[in-house]
Amino acid sequence: MPHSQTFDILLVEDDPGDAGLTKAALAQARILCKLHHVNDGVEAMAFLRRQGIHADAPTPHLVLLDLNMPRMSGREVLAAMRGDEALHKIPVVVLTTSDVEADIETSYELGANSFITKPVDIDQFIDSIKAVGDYWFSIVRLPQ
């Protein structure tokens, strides 16, 4: 993909503070993206499957997925995406406060492309988001 392209990122995050921090970090990292935010896994699947109010949603180039959410967890979203022919190729970066080894192993077993524990320090968090953007949108070649 050309570097000047604007990428669609789906942020699946139920915590408003973490969602705002991620949005700010993406802006500060100057990642050319259109960020779409949903609050839980049920809404994420509706977005990804273009259902209801998300009928016109784009297919995201990347999903940033929290693990611990109400209604449908990030683990369930990941399993559903990997089991869906139309969604299984979309890269998923688990972005969570968890650093529990079982969560890391389960995320990779379910098909996560990366697992990042959110740093508590704001500058480290911004650096992590910038690294995610640089990696996924400057280095890696994604399917069209």
Automatic annotation (TrEMBL):
Gene3D superfamilies, sorted: 3.40.50.2300
Domain Response regulatory span(s) in chain numbering: 8-133
Keyword vocabulary terms for this entry: Phosphoprotein
PROSITE patterns given in the database record: RESPONSE_REGULATORY
GO BP, one annotated term: phosphorelay signal transduction system
Keyword Phosphoprotein: yes
Pfam family, one: Response_reg
Record SUPFAM superfamilies: CheY-like (SSF52172)
4-aspartylphosphate: residues carrying this PTM: D66
Name used for this protein in its record: Response regulator rcp1
Species name: Magnetospirillum gryphiswaldense (strain DSM 6361 / JCM 21280 / NBRC 15271 / MSR-1)
Lineage summary: Bacteria, Pseudomonadati, Pseudomonadota, Alphaproteobacteria, Rhodospirillales
